[in-house]
Amino acid sequence: TNSLPVYSQEEVTKHCSIEKGVWVTYKGGVYDITDFVTVHPGGDKILLAAGKALEPFWALYGVHEQEHVLEILSEYKVGILRAEDSKKDDIKSADPYSTDPTRHPALIVNSVKPFNAEPPPVILTDNYITPTDIFFKRNHLPVPRIDPKTYRLEIEGLPGGTVSLTLDDLKTLFPKRTLIATIQCAGNRRSEMNKVKQVKGLNWGIAAISNAKWSGAYLRDVLYHYGFSPEVAAKARHVQFEGLDVDVTGTPYGASIPINKAMSEEGDVLLAYQMNGEDLPADHGFPVRAIVPGVVGARNIKWLGKIVISEEESQSHWQQNDYKGFSPGTDWDTVDFKSAPAIQELPVQSAITNLADGSSIDRDMDKVTVKGYAWSGGGREVVRVDVSLDGGKTWHVAKLQSSEEIESSAPSPPPGRAWAWKLWEIEIPLPEGAQELEVVCKAVDSSYNTQPDSVAPIWNLRGVLTNAWHQVRVKVK
Ligand code: HEM
Ligand code: MTE
Ligand code: MO
User: Fold this and answer.
1) Domain co-membership, 364 together with 277
2) Are residues 115 and 253 located together in one domain of the fold?
3) Is 0.85 exceeded by the ipTM?
4) Mutational test site, ligand 1, from 46, 55, 58, max ligand atoms within 8 Å of CB
5) Are 468 and 458 in contact (CB under 8 A)?
6) Burial level of 172, CB count in 10 A (0-12/13-18/19+)?
7) Residue 354: what are its φ and ψ, rounded to 5°?
8) N or C: which end of the chain has fewer CB within 10 A?
9) Average pLDDT, stretch 268-274?
10) pLDDT tens digit string along 432-466?
């Protein structure tokens, strides 16, 4: 690399667009990444660093702190940054994650900056209501620290113009509603897709899903209070949400949901300020988040700053260019994000939590206990879970936890509003002489939707919507 030319920052700065070429600097090196821009897994954001240093951007997206990322970068090295320019202060940046909260040590961490973690499967289903500390956490950006006294929730798109609510308004002007709802990330079980063929995204196991009791005001109560009317309804198609967590350009995390989900009496969309009976914790959206039961986690906006009633979907990256499903035949060269709808309701799901793949059980036990969770999107209740010990040749019906067993505050929901998961359990006689068990589960929801038997036919480049039969191999010793 000694023979590489030396460039000034001024020269690098000129290369700030696809037309002029995209150059960046990193630790004193100069890189021409023009050809990499279109294949960057993080999308167009990469252009924010055009002509500049990568360090402050990579400080925000810790996904880059990996060997393979540096290997990719090294292929594009074209020069050395002039020594005096590489010492400039603006290259160093304060860690935007330094004010993130501390987390429970039991969590399995998928990425630290931003923080993404799931509980170990064996403790996930110990409680019907997931304890807040181990509830899975999925952040795209640093956790914003919001002063509840100055917090305002803005609402746009109503006839009277922009509305601005305080936290107190939300708590006192509207009845407090409480519901139990499961949140699942679209990427739950992505690691199983990775085994078929590499996908892009966090390598979630089976626990990017959790269940909590949420309290707050119904979104529809709030919107009607501030003038939502048949005239508004005639034009409105979507309700957009914006978080108060922002990226380096000041762009917030955002998403939208269909207007009928938002306004329906059966939709139960909540502006939640409590989780499991306490103020929302920082990681889960303090002071207010949207709970959109039955809908993919990505639309349950945390640190909610703004609501917009609109004819259009959210234009956010996460609504338009992410969280969409594609054919197994679609790759990064052919994908057209505009061609697929944004994920809203999730398909039926289940997984085994008490047996790990590759573990072993004692031959002397005459029965095998299998436990897990099951859930479906759109308020469709799980009506049955089937379990097999022989890879799906023979089946047994698991016992679903009844609402009495759960708690008196969790009566069975009205049809079409089953927002919470079901935990299930079964004891099956150990087949005689078996050396290995192929334990499988699959759930059926109230629409008789069931899970596909394998991952390959539902594989997609982004690794979302993994809901094949969950399968673990267990040795009998
Ligand atoms: C993801 C490379 C610059 C934002 C990734 C990944 C790679 C990569 C390999 C996937 C990592 C994984 O999932 O294992 C690069 C290279 C860059 C660059 C080589 C410079 C030459 C940037 C910049 C930004 C950025 C400047 C932001 C301003 C992101 C984001 C993701 C990502 C947000 C995550 C996408 C997701 O949610 O999975 N990048 N990146 N990248 N990158 Fe970059
Ligand atoms: N809201 C904001 N403002 N920022 C985010 O990064 N992540 C979303 C959603 N809401 C996110 C957000 C995603 S992808 C998921 S799966 C859920 O929050 C996770 O919620 P949890 O962290 O409370 O489990
Ligand atoms: Mo998610």
Assistant:
1) no
2) yes
3) no
4) 46
5) yes
6) exposed
7) -95, -10
8) N
9) 98
10) 999 999 999 999 999 999 999 999 999 999 999 99
* CA dist 293 → 88, 229, 389, 406, 419 (Å): 48, 24, 33, 19, 6
Convert the pLDDT of each residue in 409-418 to its tens digit. Answer: 566 788 999 9
Cis peptide bond prior to 119, omega within 30° of 0: no
- Indicate whether 128 and 76 sit together in one domain: no
Tell whether ligand 1 has an atom less than 6 A from the beta carbon of residue 69: yes
| Token reading at 406 | 């759960």
Residue 176's pLDDT band (boundaries 50, 70, 90)?
very high
Comparing C-alpha atoms, which of 249, 262, 374, 372 is closest to residue 314? Answer: 262
Q: Report, as residue numbers or ranges, the catalytic residues.
A: 40, 64, 138, 185, 323
The tokens of 254 are what?
Answer: 């955002």
Could you tell me if residue 277 is inside a domain?
yes
Instruction: Return d(Cα 353, Cα 371) in angstroms, integer.
Output: 6
Q: Please answer whether residues 345 and 378 qualify as being in contact, where contact means their C-beta atoms are separated by less than 8 angstroms.
A: yes
42 lines ligand 1 (CB under 6 A): yes
**pLDDT category of residue 89 using cuts at 50, 70 and 90:** low
Please tell me the distance between residue 296's alpha carbon and the centre of ligand 1 in angstroms: 23
Distance CA 293, CA 245 (A): 22
- Please check whether residue 367 lies inside any domain of the structure: yes
Residue 152: other Cβ atoms inside 10 A: 14
Residues 291 and 227 occupy one common structural domain: yes
User: Helical H runs in 39-124?
Assistant: 55-60, 67-74, 83-86, 121-124
Q: Which residue range is the domain that position 134 belongs to?
A: 108-337
